[in-house]
Amino acid sequence: MSSRYDDELWSLVPERRGPPPRHLAAFVSSLTPAGRALDLGCGDGRLSEAIEADSLTIADVSEAALTRARARLPHASAVALEPDAPLPLCDNAFDLVLCTETLEHVRDVQLLLSEIRRVLCPEGRLALTTPAHGRLTGLAAAVRGFERQFDPLSPHLRFLSRRSLARLLDAMGFEVRRLSREAGTLLAVATR
Question: Going from the N-terminus, what domains does the chain have, and what CATH number goes with each?
C-alpha cells in the first residue's frame, strides 16, 4: 500500500522538472558500477538514470513517484514500499543501495538502515545523501527563531550533521568510506 501523504506531495511536483541538481548527479555518477543496484526512495527516477549497474531496482513509498520512475526507466524492476515496514526484498540481493534525499523523511531510521544492511551483499555499498545541518543551522535557529528556521509543514523529520550521520551509520554497522558536504548536502558512501 503506497503512502497517500507521499502521493499527495508528488502530485504537487511538476512532471517535467528538468535535470537533477548537479552535485547529486555528479555524486551518483562518481559511484563505481554495480552488478545489482537498488535506488531506495527513487522518486521520479531522475537520479536512477545515472546509476551504472547490470540490473536496477527502483523502489518508493509513493505510487505516484513510482509511476513516473517506471516511465523513465522501463528496464528497471519497480517495487512499491510501505512506510515504516521491512523491505520486500531478499537478503544479500544488491551490491549497491542508493538512497538520495530520503533519510530525512523517514520515521524509523533504525529499521530503514537495518533493512538496507540486510539487502546489501557482504561488502556492498550504501550511497546516501541528505541535507546537511550543523552549527550554522543551530545558530540560525537561535538568531531567527526555531519556527522561522524550520517550516512546520516541511516533510523533513530528521536533521543530520556530518558528525551525527557518521555516528548513525557506524551504530548501524556500516563502515563510512567517504563523507563530504557539498551545496548544503551530506554525501556518504559506506560499506556493510
Answer: 4-191 (3.40.50.150)
